[in-house]
C-alpha cells in the first residue's frame, strides 16, 4: 500500500511540473462554455455541449501522457530503479493517478456545464440534467480511453508510437462498425440502438452498467500493464 | 603521535604505518598501555583503506608491540618497549657469536675486533 | 569485529545476456559490511550492467543477489529503503527545483532525516530555488548524494560518481565516504574508471573486463599479485610461457604485467621490476590479450 502511494505521489509530482502557468489550459473549457453557451442560447445547446466536452477532454488527456513522457526522460528513467517501490506497485500508483484525473475531469465538466447553464439562464435543474446527460458519459469515455491507452504506453515507451497504436486500434474499431452497418440488416441495428438508448436512459441501469464495464476494463488493462512493466528494462 | 604517509616512497602504506608506530613506541613517545587511534578513525584521517590499517595493527600485534583487546581497541603492550630492547639484544648477541667465530678462524685478536666495531659504530649516524 | 553483521552485498553467479550480444557472465563477489569496494574496469566492461542488476533495473538470466542480507528482487522495496543510489548525473525531473526534490523524496523513506539533508545542501552549496537542469553535473551528483545520505541508508551504490567532478569535489566525496563507513556498519560500492579515487581509500577491488570477473578481493592483494616488468625490445620472448598476463611493446622496449608468483629471476641490469598500480593492471590486462597472455 505504502509503495503504491509512493508511486502515486511521484507520478503526481511528475505531472505537476512547474508553476501556476500549467493551470491556464484548465480555464479553456470554461471559456468555451461561455462562448458556446451564448451561441446556443436559441436552442442549439447540443452544439455547445460538444465543444465543452471536447475541450475538457483535450485538457485532461495531457495529464497521464505527461507522467509517461516524464518517465522516459533520459536521466529520470533511472528513478524507477531507485525508489522503494517495485514495478507492480509503480503500475498501481499510475492507475491511481487515473482515478485522480477522472475526478479532475468531472470537476472541470461540472464547472463548465454550470457556466453553460448560467449563460443560458437555466437553473440548478438544467445544470443537473446536463451533468447526467453529458458529464457522466464523458467521464466514462475518458476513463475507458485511458484504460486502453495505458498498456499501449507501457508497451511503447515512446509516447508518439503509443498514440499511433491507438489510432490503429480506432481504425480497426471503425472498420468493425462499418462492417456491422454494411452486413447487419437495418431494422436489427435500429432495434439494437433503440434498446441500448432506452436501457442507458434509466440511471438505475446506466450507472451500474457504466461502473461495471469500467471495472472490467480496468482489471484487464491493469493486468496487461503489470505484465508489460515487469518485463521492461530501464 | 605524528604519522605521515608517502605515496611515492614505493614502500607499502601498511609498512609505513607500522614503522612509524614502532618507532614511536621505541622512542617512548607512545607509552606502555596507551591506546592507538581506533583503526577506522586512523583510516579516515589518513584517507587510507581500513584494511591497510588493520593489516599494520595486526602485524604490530604479531610482533608483540601492541595488543588488540576485543571491543576496546589497540594498546601498546605494557612491556612492548622492554620487549623490543630484549629482542634487539638477542639479535646482536647472535651476530656477535658469528663475528667472533669468524674472527677466531682468521686469527684476528680481540683488540683489533673491538677497533673494527668501534669504527663501524661511529660510521653510523 | 564486523563478522556479526550481515554481508552488505553478495553477488553469486550473476549473469545477464543482452540481445546485442554483450554478456555479463557468472559474476560472484561479496562485500563485507563496513568497507568500501571499488568496481573497476574499462568502459563497456559491464560495470553499469552489474549495478543495474543489483538495482533490479534489468532482469537477470541467472544468479542471486542479496543486499544487506535480503534478496534484491523478492525484498526489493525493503532493500531500496536501506540503500542510497548515486549516478553520475541527476535522476530527478529536470524542471524540478532542489526544494521540490526534497518534497518528493521525503515521503519515500520512513527514516528521512530533514536536518541531515539541510546540512548537506548547505555543505554542497545547493540552493533550494535552483532547478535541476541549471545545476552542473557535479552539483547534480551532490544532490543525489544528499538524498542518498539523508535516509539512513546502510549501503551506498555509486555508479561513476566522480566522472564529472574536479579534483576538489572528488576529494570531498572521498572524505564523505571515509566518514560514512567509519562506524563499521555502513558500506560503499563504487564503480569508477578514475582509479586514483580508489588507490588509497578502497578496501576491496572487484575488477570486471569483457563481461567477466577478473579479480575480487582486498585491494592490497590485488596490487601485490602483479608486478610490472620493463625491459629492452627483445626480452619479452624470453619470459617464461604463461608468466606474462599482458604486454605492451613499443619501439625501444616493453612493459609486461606478470603475476608475482610467476615472476622469473631476471638479470637486474636488463630489466626493471616495479609494483603494479591499478591503472597498470587494467591497461595491461586489456592490451596484451593477443600477445603473450593466451594460455
UniProtKB/TrEMBL annotation, chain B:
It comes from Bifidobacterium phasiani. It comes from the Bacteria. The keyword Transcription applies. Transmembrane segments: none annotated. InterPro entries: Tscrpt_reg_HTH_GntR. CDD domains: WHTH_GntR. PANTHER family: GNTR-FAMILY TRANSCRIPTIONAL REGULATOR, HTH-TYPE TRANSCRIPTIONAL REPRESSOR YTRA. Keywords: DNA-binding, Transcription, Transcription regulation. This is GntR family transcriptional regulator. It holds the Pfam family GntR. Residues 11-79 form the HTH gntR-type domain.
Automatic annotation (TrEMBL), chain C:
PROSITE patterns: ABC_TRANSPORTER_2. The keyword Nucleotide-binding applies. Pfam families: ABC_tran. InterPro entries: AAA+_ATPase (IPR003593), ABC_transporter-like_ATP-bd (IPR003439), ABC_Transporter_VariousFunc (IPR051782). Residues 9-235 form the ABC transporter domain. One of its GO terms (molecular function) is ATP binding. This is ABC transporter ATP-binding protein. It comes from Bifidobacterium phasiani. The lineage of its organism: Bacteria, Bacillati, Actinomycetota, Actinomycetes, Bifidobacteriales.
Amino acid at each position: 500500500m505504502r509503495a503504491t502511494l509512493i508511486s502515486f505521489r511521484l507520478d503526481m509530482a511528475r505531472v505537476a511540473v512547474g508553476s501556476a502557468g500549467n493551470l491556464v489550459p484548465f480555464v479553456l473549457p470554461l471559456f468555451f462554455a461561455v462562448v458556446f453557451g451564448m451561441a446556443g442560447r436559441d436552442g442549439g445547446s447540443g452544439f455547445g455541449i460538444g465543444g465543452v466536452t471536447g475541450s475538457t477532454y483535450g485538457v485532461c488527456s495531457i495529464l497521464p501522457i505527461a507522467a509517461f513522457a516524464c518517465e522516459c526522460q533520459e536521466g529520470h528513467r533511472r528513478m524507477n530503479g531507485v525508489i522503494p517501490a517495485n514495478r507492480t506497485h509503480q503500475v498501481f500508483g499510475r492507475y491511481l493517478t487515473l482515478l485522480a484525473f477522472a475526478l479532475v475531469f468531472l470537476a472541470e465538466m461540472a464547472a463548465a456545464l454550470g457556466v453553460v447553464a448560467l449563460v443560458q439562464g437555466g437553473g440548478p435543474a438544467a445544470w443537473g440534467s446536463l451533468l447526467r446527460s453529458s458529464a457522466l458519459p464523458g467521464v466514462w469515455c475518458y476513463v475507458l480511453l485511458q484504460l486502453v491507452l495505458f498498456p499501449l504506453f507501457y508497451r511503447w515507451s515512446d509516447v508518439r508510437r503509443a498514440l499511433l497504436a491507438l489510432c490503429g486500434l480506432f481504425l480497426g474499431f471503425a472498420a468493425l462498425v462499418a462492417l456491422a452497418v454494411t452486413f447487419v440488416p437495418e431494422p436489427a441495428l435500429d432495434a439494437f440502438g433503440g434498446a441500448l438508448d432506452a436501457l442507458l436512459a434509466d440511471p438505475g441501469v446506466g450507472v451500474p452498467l457504466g461502473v461495471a464495464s469500467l471495472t472490467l476494463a480496468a482489471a484487464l488493462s491493469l493486468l496487461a500493464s503489470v505484465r508489460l512493466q515487469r518485463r521492461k528494462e530501464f | 603521535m605524528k604519522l605521515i604517509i608517502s605515496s611515492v616512497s614505493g614502500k607499502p602504506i601498511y609498512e609505513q604505518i607500522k614503522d612509524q608506530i614502532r618507532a614511536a613506541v621505541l622512542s617512548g613517545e607512545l607509552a606502555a598501555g596507551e591506546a592507538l587511534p581506533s583503526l577506522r578513525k586512523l583510516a579516515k584521517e589518513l584517507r587510507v583503506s581500513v584494511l591497510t590499517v588493520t593489516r599494520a595493527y595486526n602485524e604490530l600485534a604479531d610482533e608483540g608491540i601492541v595488543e588488540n583487546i576485543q571491543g576496546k581497541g589497540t594498546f601498546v603492550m605494557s612491556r612492548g618497549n622492554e620487549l623490543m630492547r630484549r629482542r634487539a639484544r638477542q639479535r646482536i648477541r647472535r651476530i656477535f657469536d658469528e663475528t667472533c667465530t669468524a674472527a677466531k678462524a682468521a686469527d684476528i685478536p680481540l683488540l683489533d675486533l673491538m677497533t673494527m666495531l668501534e669504527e663501524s659504530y661511529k660510521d653510523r649516524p | 569485529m564486523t563478522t556479526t553483521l550481515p554481508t552488505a552485498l553478495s553477488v553469486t553467479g550473476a549473469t545477464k545476456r543482452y540481445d546485442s550480444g554483450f554478456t555479463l557472465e557468472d559474476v560472484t563477489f561479496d562485500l563485507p559490511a563496513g568497507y568500501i569496494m571499488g568496481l573497476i574496469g574499462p568502459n563497456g566492461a559491464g560495470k553499469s550492467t552489474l549495478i543495474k542488476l543489483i538495482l533490479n533495473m534489468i532482469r537477470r538470466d541467472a544468479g542471486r543477489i542479496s543486499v544487506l542480507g535480503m534478496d534484491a528482487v523478492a525484498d526489493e522495496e525493503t532493500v531500496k529503503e536501506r540503500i542510497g543510489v548515486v549516478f553520475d548525473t541527476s535522476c530527478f525531473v529536470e524542471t524540478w527545483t532542489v526544494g521540490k526534490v526534497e518534497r518528493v523524496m521525503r515521503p519515500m523513506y520512513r527514516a528521512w532525516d530533514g536536518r541531515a539533508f539541510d546540512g548537506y545542501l548547505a555543505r554542497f552549496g545547493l540552493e533550494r530555488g535552483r532547478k535541476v537542469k541549471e545545476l552542473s553535473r557535479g552539483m547534480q551528483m551532490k544532490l543525489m548524494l544528499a538524498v542518498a545520505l539523508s535516509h539512513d541508508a546502510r549501503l551506498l551504490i555509486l555508479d561513476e560518481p566522480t566522472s564529472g567532478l574536479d579534483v576538489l569535489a572528488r576529494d570531498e566525496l572521498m572524505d564523505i565516504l571515509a566518514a560514512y563507513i567509519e562506524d563499521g556498519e555502513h558500506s560503499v560500492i563504487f564503480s569508477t574508471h578514475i582509479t586514483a579515487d580508489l588507490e588509497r581509500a578502497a578496501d576491496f577491488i572487484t575488477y570486471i573486463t569483457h563481461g567477466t570477473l577478473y579479480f575480487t578481493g582486498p585491494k592490497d592483494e590485488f596490487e601485490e599479485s602483479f608486478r610490472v616488468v620493463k625491459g629492452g625490445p627483445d626480452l619479452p620472448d624470453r619470459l617464461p610461457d604463461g608468466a606474462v598476463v599482458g604486454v605492451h611493446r613499443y619501439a625501444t622496449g616493453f612493459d609486461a604485467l606478470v603475476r608475482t608468483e610467476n615472476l622469473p629471476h631476471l638479470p637486474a641490469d636488463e630489466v626493471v621490476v616495479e609494483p603494479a598500480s591499478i591503472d597498470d593492471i587494467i591497461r595491461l590486462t586489456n592490451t596484451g590479450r593477443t600477445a603473450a597472455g593466451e594460455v
